[in-house]
Design a protein that fits this description.
- With 384 residues, the protein is of the alpha/beta class.
- The chain has a domain of 144 residues: Rossmann fold.
- It has 15 helices and eleven strands.
- Helix 6 links the parallel strand 6 and strand 7.
- The radius of gyration is 20 Å and the shape is globular.
- It starts with 5 loop residues before the first strand and ends with a helix.
Length: 384
Amino acid sequence: MTAARRNISLLGSTGSIGEQALEVARLHPGRIRLRALSAGRRVDRLIEQAAECLPDLVCVSERSDESRVRSALGAGVRVVSGADGLIECARLDPVDIVLNALVGARGLAPSLAALDAGRTLALANKETLVTGGPLVAAAAARGGGRVVAVDSEHWALSELMEGRDPREALKVWITASGGPLRLVDPAEWASLRPEQVLRHPVWSMGPRITVDSATMMNKGFEVLEARWLFDIPLDRVDAVIQPEALVHAMVEWGDGSWTAQLSTPSMALPIQKALLGERLQPTTARPLALLEIGALRFEPIDSRKFPCFALARRAGEEGGTFPAALNAADEVAVEAFLAGRLAFLDIAPLLGRVLDGHDGRELREPGDVWEADREARSLARSLL
């Protein structure tokens, strides 16, 4: 039998995840049809991708770019723009899977639209669940869509939990490599410059997520994601440093046994599983030569050294609009650090003050997220 071809809408096609998704499509041309592409500033690259993939729909961020893209691609491709254009991409027929690789809270609205339309949401936009976890759960129940994990740690957890009732797990664990500062003496952190913090030892990522890896905010946000992805209480989700970055997740079962997922660091495996629904060759991921490793180490995340990890947990425990407020403030703080307007060691104190000053409320609709986002950004900027 020939496996059915998947119709894909790819949001954020010119970023790292998007480019790797295109590589998976090239490796399995009979299995994947890209129906929609969206991108932000890299319009020329988007035009190149569309010329290769021949999608039905293309979305750009700015309306002023629409005419240039239409002229380059011709009448066979419909061109839209902005937030409304992303919603069109998410709801497009006959799309089966929406791969959301957008950056930031703007990824929430198309995620909700995809789930409301009954699509499978392959989620690489962490802000969707961090800022709007309850809204995502409600949209999936309402529209019949489902969420599959693309983040390496959450994909690894889904592999371990496949066919198992999450209630059997005493605790689930995701791992961190330790980021760029694991071996840097905290006494030196006061003078850290952006270029030092952006040297991640394992992953090649965008500036914000790399800084968040250095502060461990990224791992804290991933804990919040896991809580919603697997419908597990927050106190049963934790993280640990695994310096070799070969163990991506573990499950601690009620009988005292553990299971773990191991692979070389690569986004190709989670992307391919999300798009194809199965493990297939070929893949661009290197096989794991486990016998050559020698040892695997595990270290706790020290919340005194990495206070942002504890702030993320605090926001998750508070619930409601607190995670959205923390995410917005973190974007402001990271931007200020990269611009040289905020010292690295001042990131966590600023975020703590935003949480202290946030008037949290229940999350009932996306507007609650946008209002909390706006308020937190304003407060964070006033504290710089």
